[in-house]
TrEMBL record:
<comment type="pathway">
    <text>Cofactor biosynthesis; adenosylcobalamin biosynthesis; adenosylcobalamin from cob(II)yrinate a,c-diamide: step 6/7.</text>
</comment>
<keyword id="KW-0067">ATP-binding</keyword>
<dbReference type="InterPro" id="IPR003203">
    <property type="entry name" value="CobU/CobP"/>
</dbReference>
<protein>
    <recommendedName>
        <fullName>Adenosylcobinamide kinase</fullName>
        <ecNumber>2.7.1.156</ecNumber>
        <ecNumber>2.7.7.62</ecNumber>
    </recommendedName>
</protein>
<keyword id="KW-0418">Kinase</keyword>
<dbReference type="InterPro" id="IPR027417">
    <property type="entry name" value="P-loop_NTPase"/>
</dbReference>
<feature type="binding site">
    <location>
        <begin position="59"/>
        <end position="62"/>
    </location>
    <ligand>
        <name>GTP</name>
    </ligand>
</feature>
<comment type="pathway">
    <text>Cofactor biosynthesis; adenosylcobalamin biosynthesis; adenosylcobalamin from cob(II)yrinate a,c-diamide: step 5/7.</text>
</comment>
<comment type="function">
    <text>Catalyzes ATP-dependent phosphorylation of adenosylcobinamide and addition of GMP to adenosylcobinamide phosphate.</text>
</comment>
<feature type="binding site">
    <location>
        <begin position="15"/>
        <end position="22"/>
    </location>
    <ligand>
        <name>GTP</name>
    </ligand>
</feature>
<dbReference type="GO" id="GO:0009236">
    <property type="term" value="P:cobalamin biosynthetic process"/>
</dbReference>
<dbReference type="Pfam" id="PF02283">
    <property type="entry name" value="CobU"/>
</dbReference>
<feature type="binding site">
    <location>
        <position position="70"/>
    </location>
    <ligand>
        <name>GTP</name>
    </ligand>
</feature>
<dbReference type="GO" id="GO:0005525">
    <property type="term" value="F:GTP binding"/>
</dbReference>
<dbReference type="GO" id="GO:0008820">
    <property type="term" value="F:cobinamide phosphate guanylyltransferase activity"/>
</dbReference>
<keyword id="KW-0808">Transferase</keyword>
<keyword id="KW-0547">Nucleotide-binding</keyword>
């Protein structure tokens, strides 16, 4: 793992649905003291009012001075081209993975690797990534559900290995896994 520069930081905030992940990530972004760029990976859908309401709730909660960039597919480019000395808040990794689910396994492996490399090569930026824990339930009965769960789970694990801090939000509590736990070794098939 290539360390980020001393003035850069990667934070992973993970947990189940409606646990408060986004709120905790927003709190961390406000505490960074840097200008915040909120990177939204969700795609709007006028035919889905409930989805639009979820997006509006997130939008309404953010401070007015935060810049919002929609990056449903071009997350890597958005991270690498963002200005230095800022805090990027990516919400959410699961939505981004879902948006790219049609990629074949070879293309996805390259995409996943490029995301990790872009985070390892930060230029005086903080990046806070919100990610869902999608694999705490039963194995999905359909192939696309299993593919999504496996890709997101693997990516969250890889991101956790390069993050400076990892938080789990569960049961209305914030747990700093970086202080409470020990990282797993990198599997041999993932070592560079």
């Amino acid at each position: 793992m290539m360390p980020t520069s001393p003035s850069s930081r990667i934070v992973l905030v993970t947990g189940p649905t409606k646990s408060g992940k986004s709120e905790w990530a927003e709190t961390l972004a406000m505490q960074s003291g840097k200008s915040v760029i909120y990177i939204a990976t969700a795609q709007t859908n006028a035919d889905d009012p409930e989805w639009q309401q979820r997006i509006s709730q997130h939008r309404d909660r953010r401070p007015a001075d935060w810049l919002t960039v929609e990056a449903p597919e071009n997350l890597i480019e958005t991270i690498t081209t963002a200005p230095s000395s800022c805090c990027l808040l990516v919400d959410s990794l699961g939505t981004w993975v879902a948006n790219l689910l049609e990629q074949d396994s070879i293309t996805w492996a390259a995409t996943e690797q490029n995301l990790i490399l872009s985070l390892e090569r930060l230029d005086n930026k903080d990046v806070i990534v919100v990610a869902e824990e999608a694999a705490w339930g039963v194995v999905p009965a359909y192939a696309s559900g299993r593919l999504f769960r496996d890709r997101l789970g693997q990516l969250v694990r890889r991101l956790g290995a390069v993050a400076n801090s990892v938080y789990l939000i569960a049961g209305g509590h914030v747990l700093n896994l970086s202080l409470l736990g020990s990282p797993l070794p990198t599997p041999l098939n993932e070592k560079r």
